[in-house]
Amino acid sequence: MGEAKNRGNFEERKKQALELESQKEDESLRTQQHEREEQEILGAKLLAFAKSRLESSEPRLLQFTKSIEQSLISKNYFSALIVALTLPDICCSMDNENRWTSGAKYAKWFKKYVGHHYISHIGSDQVETTFLSGEECFALRCSYLHKGTNNIEDERIIKDYESKSVKIEFMAEMNSDCLKLNNILLLKLEAFCYRIIEGVNNWLQDSKGNSRITSHMREIPKIHTEGFSPIPGVFIGG
Asked: Tell me, what DSSP letter sits at residue 166?
């Protein structure tokens, strides 16, 4: 009888051991399945990310022009103006092997792509008058971005500039796009920003096929609003 009892206990322990082993195997299979599913999800995300990069042919520079437009719509005027004043610098730097730029390059870019909007022929003699030069715009860029002021008279680039403005004011609403009162220049903010955007778009057209600019364009950062892969095999967010 004792032997039968021992045999029964042995069979019970054996059964429990087999059940435990089976549970471990099931748990291991579930873990492996979960890991496979996670790898598949990660692979799908990485594939989607890679595909989106391949499909996206829009120059990254247009992130900035879109930001200007969105800022104007939301009446975030300082944001729109600061980005607009910066864009000629960015364009000039991309056209230089070492990404160097200067006030002279900025002024030249502005004159070519924007300046004609601020030249008028005045009076019966149709005297050509420049309301906003490239040098003045660069001076404004320096004062606004580095000093938080719109007084430009002390900026080095216009030190010897004749008929310069000493201050440039922006208005959200005005009847004309620009108006000069003595040595103070008034500009319509929206018109100025959209003329910078137009200049950037024309510069992009002129720069097609330029391998140096194309290469530098890829270096422009982006703010990721979805998950992305900072290094191969690693996906963050999403």
From this structure: S
Domain extent listing, the chain: 2-56, 62-217
| Burial label, 86 (beta-carbon count in 10 A; 0-12, 13-18, 19+) | middle
Highest mean pLDDT among 13-17, 196-200, 217-221: 196-200
Helix 189-206 crosses helix 62-73 at what angle (to 10 degrees)? Answer: 160
- The pLDDT tens digits for 15-48 are 766 676 777 776 777 777 777 777 676 666 555 5
Reported as a pLDDT band with limits 50, 70 and 90, residue 148 is very high
Helix (H/G/I), strand (E/B), else coil: 175:
coil
Question: Using CA atoms, how far apart are residues 107 and 32, in angstroms rounded to an integer?
Answer: 63
What distance lies between CA 198 and its chain's CA centroid?
17
Distance between CA atoms of 219 and 121, rounded to whole angstroms? 42
| 0.85 exceeded by pTM | no
Closest CA to 170 of 143, 135, 200, 197: 143
Placement of tokens 């008279």 in the chain = 153
Instruction: Give the closest residue to 120 by CA, choosing from 164, 178, 74.
Output: 178
What pLDDT digit, counting tens, does each position of 63-101 carry? 999 999 999 999 999 999 999 999 999 999 998 888 889
Instruction: Using the Cα atoms of residue 187, residue 188, residue 191 and residue 194 in order, give the sign of their dihedral.
Output: positive
**75 Ramachandran zone, left/alpha/beta (phi>0; psi -120 to 50):** left
Tracing tokens 């955007």 back to the chain, one arrives at 197
Pairing status of strand 167-171 against strand 127-130: unpaired
SS3 33: helix
